[in-house]
Amino acid sequence: MSGKPEGVRIRDDFWDRYTDLVRETVIPYQWEALNDRIPDAAPSYAIRNFRIAAGLEAGEYGGMVFQDSDVAKWLEAVGYSLATHPDPELERTADEVIGLIALAQHEDGYLNTYFTVKAPDERWTNLYEAHELYCAGHMMEAAVAYYEATGKRKLLDVVCRFADYIGNVFGEGPGQIRGYDGHQEIELALVKLHRATGEERYLKLARFFIDERGAQPNFLVDETNRRDGRSIWTERRLRPTAADMAYNQADVPVREQTAAVGHSVRAVYMYTAMADLARIAGDRELAEACRRLWANMTRKQMYITGGIGSTHHGEAFTFDYDLPNDTVYAETCASIGLIFFAQRMLKLEPKADYADVMERALYNNVIASMSQDGKHYFYVNPLEVWPEASARNPGRHHVKAVRQKWFGCSCCPPNVARLLSSLHDYVYTADPASDTIYAHLFIGGEARFALAAGPVGLAQQSWLPWEGRVRFELTEAPSAPFALALRIPAWCAGQAALAINGRPAPYETKDGYAVVRRAWALGDVVEWAPELSARLTAAHPDIRANAGKAAVERGPLVYCLEEADNGRPLASLSIPADAKLTAAFEAGLPGGAVVIDAEGRADERDSWQAETAYRPLAERLRPIPVKLRAVPYYLWGNREPGEMTVWVRVSDAAGGKE
Amino acid sequence: MSGKPEGVRIRDDFWDRYTDLVRETVIPYQWEALNDRIPDAAPSYAIRNFRIAAGLEAGEYGGMVFQDSDVAKWLEAVGYSLATHPDPELERTADEVIGLIALAQHEDGYLNTYFTVKAPDERWTNLYEAHELYCAGHMMEAAVAYYEATGKRKLLDVVCRFADYIGNVFGEGPGQIRGYDGHQEIELALVKLHRATGEERYLKLARFFIDERGAQPNFLVDETNRRDGRSIWTERRLRPTAADMAYNQADVPVREQTAAVGHSVRAVYMYTAMADLARIAGDRELAEACRRLWANMTRKQMYITGGIGSTHHGEAFTFDYDLPNDTVYAETCASIGLIFFAQRMLKLEPKADYADVMERALYNNVIASMSQDGKHYFYVNPLEVWPEASARNPGRHHVKAVRQKWFGCSCCPPNVARLLSSLHDYVYTADPASDTIYAHLFIGGEARFALAAGPVGLAQQSWLPWEGRVRFELTEAPSAPFALALRIPAWCAGQAALAINGRPAPYETKDGYAVVRRAWALGDVVEWAPELSARLTAAHPDIRANAGKAAVERGPLVYCLEEADNGRPLASLSIPADAKLTAAFEAGLPGGAVVIDAEGRADERDSWQAETAYRPLAERLRPIPVKLRAVPYYLWGNREPGEMTVWVRVSDAAGGKE
């Protein structure tokens, strides 16, 4: 299936706030940052590097080896933004940057300011560490987004020349490098370039990189040995083994991989490309690998918030069911990559599970990362925070209790910007072959689809995440029948009512979607009401960190307890298994939000002598009844800094049904 | 009070196994290691370094900068061992080593093979990092132990010459270094040297080091700057601040310190010397600082096992109530240092709290560190182990699920050896002024005391830790009255019966001791029966890690659950608050031990679909009744590797008295 609906535009009470924030604040702010104009911030050097590479300015390269990708991600976000919100001034600025990028490109098509300015003789000698193809990939993604938004080919031509050059450098032929990048990204970008240009050779190159990965002898190991272990990160000589390349998902061929391992962003970017290639080529073996990796990652290595990667050491996966809440990593970029992967799997095979996970990551881990002013970010998205431990226990220094100015590290904020400004791409997929439109996310807006049955226009209005109520109206309808498939969210537990033009309507359930195939008329209204109620959720018994605990959820939202509402220590609190959860809209929270209240218990502490660490359990007094208040996880840390926890002790562990 | 009883000798059913192991296995094995004769082990180089420094052999220095201290700790352990178990062959070997050490000493008294062999021009230029006075201190401790055991002065003379030289180098006078070591140790050693020689100048030098520490401007900072930040550990230039010196307890003067901070072994070695000096000089301000630091450390920063130092980053304290069970450090050496400190506080003021902590650290953290063969050790003593996480989550790599061959790192095993071979020094203190003998630990053996009342001989027989039964017999009695003060262990909750010659006897309670002052006769028998029962213990509500959990204890022993008895995951298990705890002797465990059984519950898991991480709490079924078995913590990890936990969920969190 082609999958890409045309001209979706978001108009949604909940999401407009975020997409507006990205357009009005994040993109302009990032532009200032890229130009080193943010007071009190470390300079980015990113635009300056391009000016130096273009010969317009003298100086030394600045920033990380992958600094170019920040410019690319910004341009990509600009592209998405212009697609729905034309802005001539922003477009002019972008065109100037594109002109600069074109000037920095070499005659042979090569484009990378680090190697141009700092190490001109070292092109393609350190794929393992230097992110050379990674930066190329981001520039390709930017070019495609900008081209699709504006129709302007200049950057697309630049990256096509670059891609053609890369296609000459890499391959199985004599004199070609039979290798791949240490950080996956170009693979998914080449698929996009193929989509924009129709050129098969880009697809072939993507498949080459995917299929070479993990082949023996190991390219990244051999390359490192050829450099005698010289590293751009450390003085120490590197002597990696093939097994070490699990960090880069290059220890075994991708088709043989069964569990998510290594650096989590690298992993999900790669899986995304794998799913793309599986779909386009009908590659069943690759599709099977994608399903295996998806299952392992989302069922055994994913936090309830949609966070992945449980250790900050290498920003990596660890192993099944190891999901500590306090020493967690759950990087923002990794959840964004998980959303990319989920979207590609939906294009491969529309199954609600993929969309359930996509929604989970989006409404929780991803938007929690950004402050309500759009200028502060979490890179690590913990499920349990004790601010004093973050400050004073070095094993928890990486877990920040307060969002950091976004320019402190440059990878996550632009990733949030490009995701949210392209949010319209994640709402639907369409299958022209079966004349089916799938609604995966319930986010309001208008969309058009080209089906075999004819063109379809659809306006969605959604009351999510606060109410389980969605309305679709046919704004354009072909005469031939087609199917509308609405996701039955896992959180409604199968309780979802459909009405067409005001009358309850039956539906067929397929792969987690409510499917209605019929002849539609202009103005037809479909009302969709998945039951949305607050609930307590338990974790698998092998997730040691959550034993005896529950999380509060409501619809797509995960909730958390904050010190601001519940005092401290939060660990003293417990919730009865049969607690009545009361939802109420609280206008005082940023943007307004539904909070959940319950009668809970607090371990009493007045009977403790101040200066005793341990005492007989028999001395404890009855716990104290307390009001518990849970707020949406995405809002945590927007009030005074304090403790936060997603998982709460269940005080009636003896209960449960027979 | 002098505090040092004469000629105590251990004969104890429980402890003989350990002291025999040290004498018969650890000391000989360590000798082989020091001589690089252990197959498949990294060489120590320690003896070889002395041979090179002595001019007997050519070669380069090997091992850590503080490698000399391994030889010293071995000699110290040998000294203690010879004091109670003469062994001519061992003594001959020790004498040879002492000859070698004397040969390695410089004309001016200086002694350190690292600086002699590797950096002869850099003496006293890097006190911050190079452990120069630390190594000197260990050699002094060895010399005193060997002298007191054998009467031989050779090593004592060597260290006196060295100490006199150090006294010339360091001080407030012109041309002297007004500084101190980065790793405290010499301070407590100089106090011992004073005890052995009666020389006041050694005490004065110890006090100089203690009083200079943390003074402004900061010596360690200035010294580092004088070297332009050159480091022996890293290529990076160091630019430490005075605040950074909290790691070395040198950020503020010791008298102003209020909480345990920094590297935990450095801290407790320093506190030990502070308590010594406070006692000897009657320094009330210093005594008050000791009490403050003791209170903070033992009431807010100590694990229930007597472990201290909750992070492996810098092997350090973090802050109050931050006692994670899984990412714990709780280094063996730190608990040994805590025992030193407790012993010195008991000499300063006999209060049972010090002995309670000493007993807790000894019976739990310290002896758990050693395997039952004496050849494998834990450096980190966790309270919760998931072997797969230790292997696959880098944040838990430092927590080993299996004891390591002891020569892998050289600090903890020799420290265990010197503590256990001098265990007799920790059982009693005597206060000649008040004619009182304090029994702090209930460990069998014979002891002699010189009181004003006259010489006293006491034979203790103890059934601990299995039975709450201790028997003292007067083997020598003066005609004048004197007092016997028996510790009332915190674990008996005040329930302790005393009988003299078979008849119940009343006693006065003072500072946690049962005091009986009377005229004693040869053959008098005192029976002491502190009630020893299994109990559940809760942690302070601010210790987040233990919320809703309890530990099983019995007498001085902390218990733990192991996978070998209880299956996995242990996190699935819970114990009712009112569980009946049944104690039974289990001969099958190493050495035989009392285990504790209880009826508990296990979260059911059969209803979980294999591939779901999260589900509604309401779907859970009733927990399954299971038999729980707890074994003494000191025995953990002596069967097949598996999970272990000290803290267990309490399943009836609603209970407790009104």
From TrEMBL, chains A, B:
GO terms for molecular function: hydrolase activity. Residues 436-527 form the Non-reducing end beta-L-arabinofuranosidase-like GH127 middle domain. It comes from the Bacteria. Keywords: Hydrolase. Residues 8-424 form the Non-reducing end beta-L-arabinofuranosidase-like GH127 catalytic domain. The keyword Nucleotidyltransferase does not apply. The keyword Cytoplasm does not apply. Transmembrane segments: none annotated. Residues 535-649 form the Non-reducing end beta-L-arabinofuranosidase-like GH127 C-terminal domain. This is Glycoside hydrolase family 127 protein. It comes from Paenibacillus artemisiicola.
